[in-house]
Specification:
single chain, alpha/beta, Rossmann fold, seven-stranded mixed beta sheet, 7 strands, globular
Length: 276
């Protein structure tokens, strides 16, 4: 039985795929594509490696992975409507068609073997699952030891005045701009304004970092994007597998996310994440 968050997300996003890429970029003031490039830059895949892109949506991350690395990508999404849009993107581009396959599935129950993929990416996912910790362990399960896991999520700016401006924009600006496109996008704006802060109330950033550690992902980096409106995280699958979070890395990353331009785990302007 689907939980309330998952069902609400499926119903909300079902009518959106046709204009999703363009409108998402506009509503984020052009930052969403840049955030995705930064996340892809952290993967550092090689040609011939296999990357699983969970919550692939319309296939934007899959496209960027292939463009940058020439790797093979399997995209998974729970929304048939989003997958249909991703398939249309792949089918009209021979380069993508040669490297991308798409399948319907859920992040909580991935239809793949342990360690089947070299790397994994996921975007705007954990807000929509009932148990983020169990989901992180399932994501890590299908990655080989040493493989990279990278994610992108919205965030709430930690400092004023940016937090105040963020709240005004999400509560007033997002629904208003969405309404210019359609009623469905206005509803999406209102949903985001509610779901983003609610997620961090029940799962603060420090706890998110711990969930990655507990899932068996170490060498963690947390990069705050666009004055705190987004956050890119990445790390490596440990050979030892899941365990309790006891390292200083998790505590430090949870307390003080790296800002743009930070020396440790920095990502350059075009999204190439540099190793610490």
């Amino acid at each position: 039985m689907q939980d309330v968050r998952k069902r609400e997300a499926l119903e909300l996003f079902a009518p959106l795929p046709r204009h999703y890429d363009r409108v998402a970029a506009v509503l984020s003031f052009g930052q969403d594509p840049r955030w995705r490039r930064a996340m892809v830059g952290a993967v550092k895949a090689r040609g011939g490696e296999r990357v699983l892109d969970v919550a692939t949506g319309t296939g934007l991350v899959a496209k960027e992975l292939v463009r940058r690395y020439g790797c093979d990508v399997v995209g998974v999404d729970q929304s048939q409507e989003m997958l249909a849009r991703a398939r249309a993107r792949v089918e009209r581009d021979p380069a993508l068609e040669a490297h991308v396959s798409l399948t319907h599935g859920e992040a909580e129950r991935l239809p793949f073997e342990d360690g089947e993929f070299d790397h994994l990416t996921f975007t705007y996912l954990l807000r929509y699952v009932e148990d983020p910790g169990a989901t992180m362990k399932e994501l890590a399960r299908v990655v080989r030891p040493g493989g990279r896991v990278a994610s992108l999520e919205f965030a709430v700016p930690a400092s004023q005045p940016w937090q105040g401006l963020w709240r005004v924009y999400t509560r007033v600006g997002l629904p208003a701009l969405g309404r210019v496109v359609s009623r469905e996008w206005a509803d999406t704006g209102r949903f985001l304004a509610k779901s983003i802060p609610e997620f961090y109330e029940r799962c603060p950033m420090g706890r998110v970092v711990e969930l990655w550690e507990e899932a068996g992902i170490g060498e963690l980096h947390v990069r705050s994007m666009s004055l705190g409106g987004g956050v890119v995280m990445w790390g490596r699958k440990r050979a030892g597998g899941p365990r309790a979070a006891t390292t200083g890395t998790a505590e430090e990353a949870g307390r003080e996310p790296e800002s743009e331009g930070a020396a440790t785990g920095e990502a350059s302007a075009d999204g190439d994440a540099q190793p610490a």
